[in-house]
């Protein structure tokens, strides 16, 4: 009693890196801190949405009022997203998912090769989580991706939007160390098939609030079609 329940759309957000195990003590990963995805989750919650954060390993605390599902690998992240898909209205993929995983994870710690031949890891492609959700029978009304690019940012992001079947892409130029991975700040371009809108460098928290406002507007407009 007295606790207000969020009544707005159900939003699922992926955040952070994935970890692809090599053996019991080693993994392949990337520099995503989760800050962008967590800031979006907090903003969506503040705007009245029911939010589930599907998070790879991060150092961050779960924003209050948000449900967090912890995962490690891309396959676990996909399974967690698929188990929510039927109830999801808006899906936002801010995670930096590893594109590849080990073909076979070693059961025991790999031993250093005494023959000095080096070590070759055999990698296979991971499933594309946001594309799988966008092409699902129970597709959420709005599917939003992030694009991390180091060159031709807008053009590559638009191509990714089309290839993955998304409604909106948020492109960041990760060649700039001031923004993107790990930083507290970001600058992005919001891209749909019809328009592009630039958001200047600012804190991920402020940016997340502006982006969530745009995303909710797009969701409402779509619903009224
Ligand atoms: O976590 P931070 O330190 O705050 O950094 C934020 C960020 C830079 C990681 C974030 O803003 C960002 O850009 N996230 C997406 C990074 C990325 O993996 O981009 P991509 O261009 O490789 O992938 C495009 C889209 O497909 C993304 O929405 C990604 O989540 C999704 N994807 C990619 C591969 C895969 N196997 N499954 C996916 O769902």
UniProtKB/TrEMBL annotation:
Molecular-function annotations in GO: FMN binding; metal ion binding; phosphopantothenate--cysteine ligase activity; phosphopantothenoylcysteine decarboxylase activity
Annotated stretches, region: Phosphopantothenate--cysteine ligase: 11-225
Keyword Lyase in record: yes
Pathway participation: Cofactor biosynthesis; coenzyme A biosynthesis; CoA from (R)-pantothenate: step 2/5; Cofactor biosynthesis; coenzyme A biosynthesis; CoA from (R)-pantothenate: step 3/5
GO CC terms of this entry: phosphopantothenoylcysteine decarboxylase complex
Protein name: Coenzyme A biosynthesis bifunctional protein CoaBC
Residues covered by the DNA/pantothenate metabolism flavoprotein C-terminal domain: 7-217
Function noted in UniProt: Catalyzes two steps in the biosynthesis of coenzyme A. In the first step cysteine is conjugated to 4'-phosphopantothenate to form 4-phosphopantothenoylcysteine, in the latter compound is decarboxylated to form 4'-phosphopantotheine. Catalyzes two sequential steps in the biosynthesis of coenzyme A. In the first step cysteine is conjugated to 4'-phosphopantothenate to form 4-phosphopantothenoylcysteine. In the second step the latter compound is decarboxylated to form 4'-phosphopantotheine.
Reactions it catalyzes: N-[(R)-4-phosphopantothenoyl]-L-cysteine + H(+) = (R)-4'-phosphopantetheine + CO2; (R)-4'-phosphopantothenate + L-cysteine + CTP = N-[(R)-4-phosphopantothenoyl]-L-cysteine + CMP + diphosphate + H(+)
Cofactor(s) this protein cannot do without: Mg(2+); FMN
Cofactor note: Binds 1 FMN per subunit.
Any one of the GO BP annotations: coenzyme A biosynthetic process
UniProt record similarity statement: In the C-terminal section; belongs to the PPC synthetase family.
Keywords: Decarboxylase, Flavoprotein, FMN, Ligase, Lyase, Magnesium, Metal-binding, Multifunctional enzyme
Name of the gene this protein is made from: coaBC
EC number: 4.1.1.36, 6.3.2.5
Binding site for CTP: 99, 109, 127-130, 146, 160, 164
Source domain of life: Bacteria
């Amino acid at each position: 009693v007295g606790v207000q329940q969020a009544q707005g759309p159900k939003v699922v957000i992926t955040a952070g890196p994935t970890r692809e195990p090599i053996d019991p003590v080693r993994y392949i990963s990337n520099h995503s801190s989760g800050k962008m995805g967590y800031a979006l989750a907090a903003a969506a919650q503040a705007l009245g949405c029911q939010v589930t954060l599907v998070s790879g390993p991060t150092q961050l605390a779960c924003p209050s009022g948000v449900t967090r599902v912890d995962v490690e690998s891309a396959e676990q992240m996909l399974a967690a997203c698929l188990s929510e898909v039927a109830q999801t209205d808006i899906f936002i993929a801010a995670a930096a998912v590893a594109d590849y995983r080990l073909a076979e994870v070693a059961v025991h710690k790999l031993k250093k090769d005494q023959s000095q031949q080096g070590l070759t890891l055999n990698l296979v492609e991971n499933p594309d989580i946001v594309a799988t959700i966008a092409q699902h029978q129970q597709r959420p009304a709005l599917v939003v991706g992030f694009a991390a690019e180091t060159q031709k940012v807008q053009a590559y992001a638009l191509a990714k939007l089309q290839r993955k079947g998304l409604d909106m892409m948020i492109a960041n130029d990760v060649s700039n160390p001031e923004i993107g991975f790990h930083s507290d700040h970001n600058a992005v371009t919001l891209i749909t098939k019809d328009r592009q809108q630039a958001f200047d460098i600012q804190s991920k928290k402020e940016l997340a609030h502006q982006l969530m406002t745009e995303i909710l507007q797009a969701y409402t407009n779509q619903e009224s079609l």
